[in-house]
Write a structure and sequence with these properties.
Blueprint: E1 2-7, E2 12-16, E3 30-35, H1 39-51, E4 56-61, H2 71-92, E5 99-100, E6 104-105, H3 106-112, E7 116-120, E8 126-127, E9 138-142, H4 150-158, E10 162-165, H5 173-188
Parallel strand pairs: 3-4, 3-9, 4-5, 4-6, 7-9, 7-10, 8-10
Antiparallel strand pairs: 1-2
Length: about 190
Amino acid sequence: SAEVVLLSRTESHLRLAVRSVRSAESSLPLHLGLGISRGERMDLVIQKAVELGVLTISPLVAERTVVRLEGERRASRWVHWQRVAQSACEQCHRNRIPVVAEPQDLAPWLASARGTRLLLDPAGRHAVRDVMPAAEGVVLLSGPEGGFSQRERAWAEAAGFLPVRFGPRILRAETAAIAALTAAQLLWGDLGA
């Protein structure tokens, strides 16, 4: 914006107001691989993930995924999730809309993950507080309702995912993802800064 300081027939002077833009983006590159859950549960996790500063959300089809997305329904859900992310972005004043990837199968996604890869597992051998993230960021893998199968957990470990626990209780799918994002931001990101 500007304020008119002098205005005459031959000249005009303006004083420019300097406005700084506050960045609401996280200092931690944070990515979420998310087992697809039913309706509002999936929306809730996407909304909270955006509020917690995630860069990308990858909806994943796993063996225990209850929701079956085929053809047009798959495309409409994807568009819906992108809108949920955009709306959450507006609410929390983020400058960048996180990428909500097209729904995909778990196995190929595992091979593409980069950074510190963490598998949310109630029986995980490692506590999340003992992990040090890589510069490329943190990739959290959270299962669908019912969790990942033993075979899928083995695939994740073979792809370099470290099975981590977040406490003694078994959490619902949506709670686990939100709690993990919160813990990551608190431990390594900007939550509490």
